[in-house]
Predict the structure.
Amino acid sequence: MSWFEARHEVVVEEVNLDRDLSGVAQPFDVAIIGGGITGIQVAREAAGRGLRTVLIDKDDFGAGTSSATSKLIHGGIRYLEQAQFGVVRESLRERRILSLGAPHLVEQRRFIMPGWRWSRPSTALLGAGVGLYSLLGFDSNRNAPPSLCIPMPRWMSARSVRAAIPWLYDDGLQGAWVYHDTMNVFPERLLLAYAASAAADGAVLLNHVEATGFMMQGDTVHGVEVVDRLDGQRYRISASAVVNAAGPWADLVVSSLQAELGLSMVRSKGVHLLTTPVGGAASTTDTVFARGRSGRHVIVSPWQGHSFIGPTDTEVAEEPDDLRVQSSDVELLLDTVNETLGSGVAPMVLDDVVDTTLGVRPLMVDEGKSSYTASRRHEIYDHATAGVKNLWSIGGGKWTTGRATAVQMLDLLVASPALGAATLRRFDSRRTAVFGAFGWAEDAAPFFSEVISARPEIPLSAETRVHLARLYGTDSARIMDLIATDPSLAAPISQRPGRLDIAAQAVVAVTDEGARTLSDVLDRRLVIGTLGPVELGEIERVGALVGPLLGWDTDRIDAEVGSEHQRRMQRRISWGALSR
Ligand SMILES: Cc1cc2nc3c(=O)[nH]c(=O)nc-3n(C[C@H](O)[C@H](O)[C@H](O)COP(=O)(O)OP(=O)(O)OC[C@H]3O[C@@H](n4cnc5c(N)ncnc54)[C@H](O)[C@@H]3O)c2cc1C
C-alpha cells in the first residue's frame, strides 16, 4: 500500500475526488503545523515512536524554504568563520546519517575552494578552515561503504585548478583546497521520502490545509483550527500537543494567540539562479565555492546539465508570501559569479539565467549580527514558559539538521505532561533507511545497475530507469508495474533533451504521493518543474494525465492548465525574464 493510500484510509473516504477531512475529528497525540523538512522530520520521529500524528501544510509538502536550498547536505563550512562549531559538528553528524539512510538521493561531490593572493580570509586560513571541517567530521566514514566514504581534504596546485575549472579567475590564483560534501540531488523528493516514512508509520499528512487558529481551554492548547484551502471547508483537529514548524511563517502562525511568546525571528531572503553551465557545457563536475574581491561568497554547482548559483542572503522585513525574486537579486548573483570568472570567459548575463529559486531563512535573532553571520542553529520554544501550555515552536535550523531537531523536539514532548499516557515504541531514526531506500549504508551503483537490466520488456532507456530509481528508490517498481499494465505511461512528458520524466510519474504523483495541484506535480513530484520554464504543451500533457484522477472535467482541466501557465509566467516577470 502506498503512503498516500495509507493516509486516505484514515482520513478520506473517497480518494482523489471530494476531499473529506471528517476523519480528522479523531484525537491525535501530536499535530504539526508546517510540512517543510522540519515538520516532516518531526512527523517521522513522532509516528516512528508510536504517537498518533497529524501534519498540515497550507501549501504542499516542501513548497516553502525546503525546496529552495543550495541543494547541499553539508556541515556548512563557512559557518566556521563565525565560530559556529556546534552547528557545524551537528550538521556533519547529520550529513553522515542522511547519506547512509538515503544513498540514492544524497550524492557525494568534490568541492573546490580557490585561494588567490588577495583572498580574505587568506588562502592559508581557508586551509585551516578546511582542515578543521574535516576534523569536526571525524566520524563521517563510520559504517560507510567505500563509495560513501568522505576523502581527506587536500591542496590542489594552481595548474591543476586551471585544468579542473577552466573558467576560474586566474590572476593571482595560488591553488585550491579540495574537500568533499554531499548534494541533496532532489530536495523535494528526499523530503517526500521522509514524508512517506512518516505515513508508513501511521502519520496523517495533509497538504493544502492551513492552520488558522488554536483550540484553547483556558491557557492550554488542545488542537488546531484549520481550513482546507482547496474547498474552503473548516475543521478542528484535536491534539494533546501542537508543534509549530512553520519555518519563516512560525511567528505568523502563533500571532492569533495575541500572547507575548518571545518568538523573535529574522527573515532572510535567499535566491539562487539556474543558468546555462558556467564556462560552457560539461566544463566541470566539481562544485566551486569561491569568494571574489568583493568578499561575497558564491557556490556554483553543476546540476542537471546547468549551473546552480547562489545564494543571496538579504535581511527582509516582508512576510514570506509577499516576497518575489527581483532583478536586483539576479544582478547581485551575476555580479558575484562574474568576479570569479577568468578574463577570457564571457561574463554571465541575464540571458544565461534559465530560472530562479527563492527561499526565506527563518533565523534566530542574534544581537549585533547580520543575517549572513547569524547562527544557523535551531531553537525550540516551549510556550508554557509564556503561559500557553502544550504548544511548541521551532525556529531556525538547516535542512541537514531537520532530523536532529525532530529528535530533540520529541524528547521534549515525551518528557512533558502534555502526552499523558500515550504508548511509545522504540525508534532510532539514525539507523533507519528512508522510505524507498534499497538498504541502509549501501552503495547505490549496484542498485542502479539492477534497475537498468530488470524487466527488459518495459520500454524505458537506461537513463530513464536510473532517473526513476534515483527519484523513487525501490518504489520505482511501482512505476514499472503501471507501465506493464498501460505501456502508454512510458511516454515522456517532454520532448526536450535533459527532461526524463514520464507519464506514469504524473499518475503516481496523484494516486500515491498526495499531489493535489499541477504545481504539486510539476515542481515537487516530477523534476521538470525544477529545470526552468515548463512549456504550455507540457503542462497540458500533465493536466490531461492528472485531471481525471483529481475529478476535474475538461473545462476544469483547461482552467487549471491556463492558470498554472499564467502563474509560472508571472513569477518570471518580477526578475525580468519573460522571453523564455
Ligand atoms: C537560499 C537558502 C539556501 C539554503 N541552503 C541550504 C542547504 O544547502 N542545506 C541546508 O541544510 N540548509 C539550507 N538552507 C536552510 C534550510 O532550507 C531551511 O532551514 C529549512 O528548509 C527550513 O525548513 P522548515 O521546515 O523549517 O521551513 P519551510 O520549508 O519553509 O516549511 C514551513 C512550512 O510551513 C507551512 N506553513 C506556513 N504557515 C502555515 C500555516 N498557517 N498552516 C499550515 N502550514 C503553514 C509552509 O507552507 C511551509 O511549507 C537554505 C536556506 C535558504 C533560504
About this structure: Residues 554-573 form the longest helix (20 residues). Residues 33-39, 56-59, 63-66, 68-72, 74, 210-211, 245-249, 253, 270, 311, 359-361, 397-400 surround flavin-adenine dinucleotide (CB under 6 Å). The longest strand covers residues 173-184.
